[in-house]
Amino acid sequence: MTSLEDLRRINARCIHCRACQYAYSGEPDKEGETEEYTGMLQGCPAGLYFGWEGYFNSGKQWMARAFLNGELPASKELLEVTEACTTCGMCETQCPNYIDTVHVTEALRAALIEAGVEPLDKHKVFGERVDTKDLRNPYKGAREERTKWLGEYTDVIDKPDAKVAYYVGCTAAYRQQHIADHTANILRKLGMDFTVLSDEVCCGSPILRTGQRDIFREVMNENLELFKDFDLVLFSCAGCYKTFRNDYPSHSGKPLPFKVRHAVEFVYDLLEEGKIKIEKPYNEKVTWHDPCHSVRHVGIAIEKEILNNSKNWLLDSRNAEKAKQAHFELPRVVLNGIPGLELREMYRIKGDSFCCGAGGGVKAQFPDLALFAAKERLKEAASTGAGILMTSCPFCVTNFNDGINALQEEEKETSKDLSNQGSKLKVVELLELLDELL
Fold first, then answer.
1. For the chain, what is the domain count?
2. Most Cβ neighbours (<10 Å): which of 61, 67, 144, 258?
3. Which domain does 423 fall in, by range?
4. Are residues 85 and 223 in the same domain?
5. Strand 22-23 vs strand 41-42: parallel, antiparallel, or unpaired?
6. What is the DSSP letter of 196?
7. pLDDT tens digits, one per residue of 9-29
8. What's the half-sphere exposure (Cβ side, CA atoms, 13 Å) at 122?
């Protein structure tokens, strides 16, 4: 398990150039459709909201260095600043020195807690609930109700001999149950022999992001043992997918014993293989929001996996970039395979996509920051002229809907038309649409 001390040499590569503060920092002359969205835009939700250096990644990297050197003591104040980050990875995309910025931030959080600083109050509740054997989820949902959303389809629960498992995740199981339902319907329509395990526990993402590594290790080991005999584990939650795919191998020191795919990637695979074709039209103008976990973080991981095995970075960096960009295209291939759908891209997309604001423990502990980020992204979405904001992540769906509700309340109070800010947008989960169209 990587510690902050292990990351000292990585952190030392930070020259405080502040490229990490921007989207398209490598393309300062990039042109957008409007003057508002063109060139280099600041891309860090926390930095934009709080407005000073400590909340940008560039400040966090130097605080991590100062903490390592004994120049900055462990304190609740330092933890609060460090936790006010969605760990979206925008900074990592921009970094010209390939610094694992998110790993450094998460390791600093863990180091502060290991030094005796109490987790922030909402994060501590997450940890206590996930650490409770009868719960094992941050929502305090009863274990026996984790599969309740399946309704009459109980035949898929703990199905013997199935080699494909659908990992539902806590948010879809207890909050956004329609996402779980639509995903399972898609798998049925595709004729998949799959199962949902009643002993599934939290993937550990909210616990890992907030520095509570001992608890994370427990649930990680439980899940690895639980799913070890499956050939394929499918996900509808971007955060769960990223945690299994990227974090489990990193923190366990072992490769996954099974293959993992997000459900959107799985549909992409079938489309590319010619095994399915979407024929029912969807005549809407759509803009796509790239979830940080399933798009940017996985793309970065693909790139770094190639570079870590490279003997010639000059040649392989090009291949790594191509592989990363190919991953960014997957949801777009699916969207462009839907008849009638008109895709209108936002300015900040793919690896440069602006975060919805819900990740990294921010939604619970810093709700105003989360809402600020959602509104900023909704405004960018509205600028495309699309009526539908589509994504595939339960956290993004929740936070965007909260942002739209806040804008609509503001409209009522001020009598202003905020449609250009995103108040009239409709948020649609791509898996929900695919269930309707397949």
1. 3
2. 61
3. 277-438
4. no
5. antiparallel
6. B
7. 888 999 999 999 999 999 999
8. 14
